[in-house]
Amino acid sequence: MPTEALRGFRDYPPPEAGARSEIRRRMRSAARRGGYSELETPCVESFELYQTKSGEGIAAQAWMFHDKGDRPVALAPETTPSLARVFAARAKSEPLPVKWFTVSKSWRYEEPQAGRTREFVQFNLDILGVPGVEAEADILATTALLLDEVGAEGLYAFRVSDRAIADGLGRRAGARETGPFFRAVDQYRKIPPAEFDSELAAAGVPPDRVEGLRSFFESVGTGVPFSSLEPFLAELSRDGLDASAVEGVDRVRKLFALLDRAGVSDRTVFDPTVVRGIAYYTSSVFEGYAKKGDLRSLFGGGRYDHLIELFGGPPTPAAGIALGDQTLEILLKDAGRWPEGEPPLDTFVAVADPALHGEAIALVQELRRSGVSADCDLLSRNLSRQLKEAARRRSRRALILGLREVASGALVERDLATGAQREVARSAAVRPV
Question: How far apart are the first and last CA of the chain?
Fold first, then answer.
């Protein structure tokens, strides 16, 4: 009988599961404050749903199988196709704009590594029905809010670009095909310079232009900050880009102006090497990255204006972002900001005499109904061990029932942080704090 989880899967016993629950609670709270409503979709969908969005290549990563009706189905590798399916079915009655968030388990059959497991939780923010970069600005500002809420403030930043710019750079450099060129650019920060040059050559960039293109990307460094953005974009527009790419530059300019007003331009840089590997992105693209260490990518998203049509819905502009739980966990743990677990227990009820155990149970239920988290000993331990258990549970206070106090309608309230204690009326101790 196996005693460990399958490779690529993880168990989360307490307090780890409680910490993860607390992270999701904070993220949900931030999303709702941003005006997003929660959408929940199935964990199993028709495999055709993912083929529609990603093509045949999705089969290599999907946990696909045939159900008892011999229909090809799959464990959800992501949420966006399900969201598109739901919206397409409701498009005629759904008021725009739609702002949805999802918290979903996903499964991908890929090689496990740090920050990547075969089962993971993804938190998505999506806006449908907004054609301008106002959607991207709202998504990034809300993402910043929820990251700050979970304790990541100061640990992350955003890289932002527009695929039209990368496309224009490729045409200017003589690349024959957009797909291979995008794949090469997407690998720029992940592979050695010589390998990057080879990727550009494979994309059809002539040898005499490879070095110039690489030099341009090197000039970007870790990204162009808002304070230096306007002169950089102005020079980029003058330097042989076609009209489509210049439109991408204008979108970036407008997006950064909105991000500045939203108060997040201090953590956002322009980086034309960001193209995102997924083909359905149509213009704006962005990713979050760790500001320290190897500047690793944490999550990503962008605009996908044609996806809803693939699922039978009307033409609908859309943008979204997806944050995975594994990279966020590594970021917070490395910084010592991972929660301890579930919120501490407020009250632990202890008894000085075993005969009062029933009274303790009644008091605990009364506290819980009044909105206070409370518990008591279930193992008939002595008072000293009960108080040790209360401390282990990080309780704020202990309410101690003694025969004399109970007879007079009182109990002893002990502050477990200071050790101070006092006798109080039982009715006063039950009031919410």
Answer: 48
With beta carbons less than 8 A apart as the criterion, state whether 275 and 186 touch. Answer: yes
Which tokens belong to 159?
A: 């890289």
CATH topology for 16-334 is BirA Bifunctional Protein; domain 2 (3.30.930)
Using only C-alpha atoms, the chain has a radius of gyration, in whole angstroms, of: 27
Please say whether the structural domain 347-430 has been given the CATH code 3.40.50.150.
no
Instruction: Pinpoint the residues of the chain covered by CATH 3.30.930.10.
Output: 16-334
User: Among residues 52, 133, 50, 104, which one has the least CA distance to residue 306?
Assistant: 52
Domain with CATH 3.40.50.800 in the chain: 347-430
pLDDT tens-digit map of 294-332? 778 899 999 999 999 999 999 999 999 999 999 999 999
Please work out, in degrees rounded to the nearest 5, the angle formed at the alpha carbon of residue 404 by the alpha carbons of 399 and 406. 50
Partners of 400 in beta bridges: 350, 412
* Max CA distance (Å), the chain: 94
Say how many C-beta atoms besides its own lie within 10 A of residue 277's C-beta: 11
Distances (CA, A) of 193 to 138, 190, 210: 35, 9, 11
pTM of the shown model: 0.92
